């Protein structure tokens, strides 16, 4: 690994170059060496003197021996082979002078070999091991996890898993297989290297190890980064092992300056992750977005967004504090509905025509819309527009679904238009509800937002429903304008349709006089319902009931920007207009804001 990356290896720190020593002369097959020094293994040592049967010198579960071959096992359960030292491949050395450690794993997975080494701080090391699965047939396979403990200033740091072999299958012929990785010592002056068997013994898991290596690697421009993903149970934005819960199976990503994910690591059972042999550069480190192992009710709080940017990994860097803290969130929801007066149903839709003389009622709800009970006080605030005069509570805050401590009030002074509603607790689905009443003192469109707030120091995992917005357009009364004009069209047999309009006229008996009454409702005001025009005829005028091609009235209307001309009969109640001997009448109906029109009729002078 070191040389493949362009580095140079120096001296192996393991005793005997990691080979368990050698025998001199012409040793017998098999030959046993003495036990390992105290503290190097948790297994029990065996040789042919200690165990004489059924297979002299053969270790059983939880035992080991140091020997030059496995010829002592005569039942063909294990391959007969020698150590690896001197071999340039996975084949055995066939050298009976070489020694290896032969292991029959414990029933309980444990550390079968460890050694504490003196190291240079902030230095890259390559470690490795050659492993042989000794089984000829099927059975439990070895799965070796390689761990290190760093000693800094006399303090031993927690274990770090730096490599794992996975299941090592048997092979035919038997083969030694290499495993290892690069690691940086960081600030440590000593490192304890541990080889832990992940699988239990009994019915297999029999292995031999040889040629252990822990060698300084120079000339590489790489660093190391690690951290822990955890649930911040005590909500102090820091990893506290006593109280916090670590999260396993979470994917952490390393992203380069171009936004490319260059490496991923999955947290182990302790919540830990690590990136080793990271080329020196500046990175972003983040938890994979929408990671399935992160509950949707958790909120990334330390750091916010579960992402570190601008992380500089220098040559030999040993960064161990890129932790990702999550907190259990809640989901408070604000709901707001409105209505005009007291009898209409409440609605979240906009109110588009509120008479300025009427009041509006708002129903405000603070609700637990999530799946986690809220056991600390939460609140809702509604800051009303200053144009709303004298807001008041018409229905006091009430509880639903098991909520407790529901209360609502308006502030005083500059906060007199701010309503605050609180809830002591909100079980799942519970709510507090209050109804308030306001009246605008000017016309206009008023947007009003109620906002829900989770308990102090507890995040909201679904902020999209924290605010509820409603709109009410308050309008002044209808503002209808009427105009009237007239003109003399001359005799009925020769109407002068080019005659101009005015407000006065002169004429002679028999002349035709046309009257036109214009009407309009201002924009931005209320509609005028049941709008009707009645114009009494002058005393010296006689209605001409067929003055418009057999009809008595002409109605021009502009509704929503569309102009329409209609001829109406003189008869009563058959259409929108009447022309009698007494008056001209037009029944417009609803005269909407911004609409206009005119009514024309003709008479003759007596």
The biggest beta sheet reads: 8 strands, mixed
The helix fraction, in percent, is under 10%
Shape call: rod-shaped
Q: Note the gap between the termini.
A: 120 Å
CATH topology of the largest domain: Jelly Rolls
Q: Care to describe what's here?
A:
The strands form 8 sheets. Strands 1, 2, 3, 4, 5, 7, 11 and 13 form an 8-stranded mixed beta sheet that branches. Strands 14, 15, 18, 20, 22 and 23 form a 6-stranded mixed beta sheet that branches. A 6-stranded mixed beta sheet has the order 25-33-32-27-30-29, with no helix packed on it. The termini are far apart. Helix content is 0%, strand content 48%. With 606 residues, it is mainly β.
What's this, in brief?
0% of the residues lie in helices and 48% in strands.
Summarize the topology:
Blueprint: E1 8-12, E2 32-33, E3 44-45, E4 63-67, E5 100-104, E6 111-118, E7 124-133, E8 143-152, E9 155-156, E10 160-167, E11 177-184, E12 190-197, E13 206-218, E14 222-231, E15 245-246, E16 251-255, E17 261-266, E18 272-279, E19 281-287, E20 298-302, E21 307-313, E22 318-319, E23 324-328, E24 332-340, E25 351-355, E26 360-368, E27 378-383, E28 388-400, E29 407-410, E30 418-423, E31 431-440, E32 444-453, E33 467-475, E34 480-490, E35 512-521, E36 528-536, E37 541-543, E38 553-559, E39 562-568, E40 577-579, E41 583-591, E42 596-605
Parallel strand pairs: 3-4, 14-22, 14-23, 25-33
Antiparallel strand pairs: 1-13, 2-4, 4-5, 5-13, 6-12, 7-11, 7-13, 8-9, 8-10, 8-12, 14-15, 14-18, 16-17, 16-19, 19-21, 20-23, 24-26, 26-31, 27-30, 27-32, 28-31, 29-30, 32-33, 34-35, 35-42, 36-41, 37-42, 38-39, 38-42, 40-41
